[in-house]
Queue: 2 jobs
Job 1
Amino acid sequence: MTEIEAFPSSYRVARERLLEAVSRVSTRLPVLVDSRSLMTRGPDGETLALDFIVLGARQPTRALVVSSGTHGGEGYLGSAVQLLVAQRLLPSLVLAPDQAVILLHAINPYGYAWHRRVNEDNIDLNRNFRQDFDPTACHPDYVELYDVMNPTDLDPEREKSRWARLDEFITRHGMRHFQQVFSEGQYRFPAGLQFGGQAQARSTRHLLSLVSEYFVSAKSLSWLDFHTGLGESGACELISGAVPTDPGLHYAQSIWSDPVRSAAGGESLSTPLHGLLDRGIAGALPAGCRFGMAFAEYGTHPLDRVTRALRADNWLHHHGDRNDPVGREIDAEMIEAFCPASPDWRQQTARHGVGLVEQALATLSRPVRADG
Ligand SMILES: [Zn+2]
C-alpha cells in the first residue's frame, strides 16, 4: 500500500482498516484491542470509539504510543501513519517481553467522523486536560472578539464589518497576539471556538483511565500524537507542552532528529496553550516514569484559510444545516483544511510520519538511565 492509499475516506473506514491490519499480525505478536466508546454515533450510525491497540506487553515497562484524531477531523494523516506502521513495521517488529507498541486510534472519534476539530460537546480536547475548570476563564480580547469570531449569521454586510474589525485588531496587536487569543483555549463560552470545556470530557476520562491502567509499571514512555493545520504546507513541527526546563522535553528531544519545541517556552509555531493532553498524561503516569511526548504538527494551508474554515464550521454546527449547499461546502472545506487532497502533500507527510515512528521504535530498546 502506498502512502496515498493509506489515507482513509472516513473515520469508519480508517477504523475498520486499522483493526483488520493489526488482527493480521496477531499470529506473531500478542494483540489486545481495548475500545472505549462514546454515547453517540457517527453519520452512518457507526460506533464511535477510542481504540487502544496494545501490541506486546499488557503492562509494559517501556512503551511507545502513536495516537491520532485528538482534533477529530485532523485524524486522516494520523490514521494513514498508523495503518502504514501496522503494515510495514509491525510484521517484523521484535519486542522484549516488557515492551509494547500502542496504536491509539481516534482520541476524538466524534470530531473525526463529523469532520470537526472539537468533540460532541464542542470541546477542544487538547485544551481539556486539566483538573480544575473556571467557567469564567477567557482571554479579555477573546471576549471583545467573541461576535467577530463566533457569528450567528453569515449575512454578507455584517460579515464584511466583522472581518474589518478583525483586520483592525490584527493590525493593532499583531498576528501572533491574535493567534494567542484565539487558540490558547477559553472556558467561558460553550458555543464558541476553542472551548476547553467546564469539566473533563468523556474522551479525556477514557484516555486518562487507559494511561493509569496500562502504564502502572511504566518506567519509560514515548508518545507521538499526530495533528494537522499549523505551519508551512507539508512541513512538520514537533511541539511539546512541557516547559523548557522539563526533563521530559529533553527526553523527547533525544528521541527524534527533528527538534522538539516547547510551546510553553514560546519556541514553537504554536503559542502557549491551556489544558494540553501531554500535561494530562504526564500527571497520570507513575512517579519516576520517563515520559517524552511530541505533537507532530503538519502544515496544510495558510493560517487564515484554516481559521476561516473553523469559524464557518462552528457557525454551521450551531446555526446552519449540514445537508444544504452552504453546509456541504463548509464541510468539504473543513476536510481540505486539515487533510489536503494534494497527492504530494499526502505522500510527503505520511512518509515523514512513519519515519518519526521508526525513530521512536529505535529508542524503545535503549536502556532506561537513572538520570532520564
Ligand atoms: Zn491539532
Job 2
Amino acid sequence: MNELKNLIKGRLWLPGDAGFDEARTPWNLSVNQPVAAVVEATGADDVAATVGYAALHGLTVTAQASGHGAVAAEGVILLRTHLMDGVEIADGVARVGAGAKWGEVLAAAGPLGLTGLAGSSPVVSVAGYTLGGGVGWFGRKYGLASSRVLAADVVDAAGARARVTAESDPELFWALRGGGGDFVVVTGLEFALDPAPVLYGGRVTWPLERAPEVLAAYREVTARAPEELTVWFDLMKFPGAPGFVAIDCTYLGEHPGELLRPFDAIGGTISDSRAVLPVADLGSICAEPTDPTPGAGRVELLTGLDDAVADVLLADPIDPLISVQVRHLGGALSRPSGGAAGRFTEPYLAYMVGAPLPGTAERMDALSKALVPHTSGRKPYTMLHPGEQAAAAFDASALARLRDLKRARDPHGVIRANYPVLGA
Ligand SMILES: Cc1cc2nc3c(=O)[nH]c(=O)nc-3n(C[C@H](O)[C@H](O)[C@H](O)COP(=O)(O)OP(=O)(O)OC[C@H]3O[C@@H](n4cnc5c(N)ncnc54)[C@H](O)[C@@H]3O)c2cc1C
C-alpha cells in the first residue's frame, strides 16, 4: 500500500501511523471503521489515483466526506474527501466539491435569494446526502435534493474520470439521483438552486406534558399546510435534563399568517425562536450537534398520523432515546424525482435518535414494532442505519436497475457505498 503514497498529493495513513486512528474516525463516533488505509484526497486526481490503484490490486474504496452516514467499513481504503470543499454559484447553479457541506452552500446561496434543498444539519455533506436522495426542509415545495442534480464529475471503478449528465450517461445519471454512492466516486456535483428570497422559521418548545396538545395541533396544521410550509414535531429528552416537546418549522415567505395558529393557542411555551431568518441559518433551527458525536438512529415512513399513531408516539417516555421526530412529507416529495430515489407517497416519517447506550436499540425496536401497522416498510436511503440494507430504500424495479448497473459498471466491487445495492 506504501506505493499509493507516491501516486497522490494528499496524505495516506496506514495502520500504525500516528494519526491513523484520528483519520479513520467518522463524524458518528459510535461507528468503528477498521479500514486498511485512509487517503485524504486533495482533488479529483487523488481520487482517480486511489480508485485506479484499488482496481489494480483487488482492493475496495469507500468515499467519505464527513462520516455522518458511516458504517463499519472493514478492510477498505477510506477515501476522505473533506478537503475538496469548493463551492461556486453562478446563474442559479451550484458547483461543489465532494467534501462541501450544506452550511457552506447555504451561506453562499442565501444572499442571492436562493437555497439548496438541505436537511436539518449544516455539517452533512452535499455529496453523500444528495446521492442518497436528501429529504430536506424544502422538499415539500421543491422535492428531493437529488432531483436538482444537473451533472456530476466522477471517477469510475477503473479509475477513469468522466462528467455525467442526463445526456452523456442516462442510466448512471438516474442512479446518482438517489441510488447512493455505490457506482462511482463523485468528485464534484452541479445542481440547480431554488428561490428563497425570504425565509421564516424556527423552533417552539413546551414542557413535555404538553405533548398531546402539540401533537394534536401538529396534525391539524400539517393536514392543511401549503407546500411552502414545513413543520416537524419533536419529543426530546437529553440525559439529566427535563424532556420537552418542540415543533421546528420553515415557511418560504415573510410570515405564515394564520397557518401556525393552533400552536400559538397552546400557551406555556419555554422558548420560541420563530423569525425571518437568513437561509444561511437554516441549519441552526434543529440545534443538532455539529461536532462529531456518537449516535444511533432509526427511521420509519408513516402511512398516516391518525389517533392510533399518536397513541403509539405518546404511549411511553422516549428515554433512553434523545429524540423522536415526525417530519411532514407530501407535496413535491410525493411526485416523481426523476431518479433512483423515486418518490415518497407516505405523508410523514418518524426519525428516532439516541446515544448508543444500553436500552437504546431495544427502545427503537419497540417503537418501530408498535408503528408497524402504520409504516410502509420503505426507508429513505440517507436515513438507513448500520444493520439495514439498501433494498429497504427502493422499489423492486429501481433496485433491480441499480443492481444491474452495479454489476455492469463495477463488476469487481472496487467501490463500496455505506449501503451497497447488492447487499441482502
Ligand atoms: C445529524 C444528522 C442529520 C441528518 N439530517 C438529514 C436530513 O435532514 N435529511 C436526510 O435526508 N438525511 C439526513 N441525515 C442523513 C445523511 O444525509 C446521511 O447520513 C448522508 O449519507 C450523509 O452524507 P455525508 O457525506 O455527510 O456522510 P458520509 O458518511 O461521509 O457519506 C455517506 C455515504 O455517502 C456516499 N458518499 C459520500 N461522498 C461520496 C462521494 N464523493 N462519491 C460517492 N459516494 C459518496 C458513500 O457511500 C458514503 O458511505 C442526517 C444525518 C445526521 C447524522
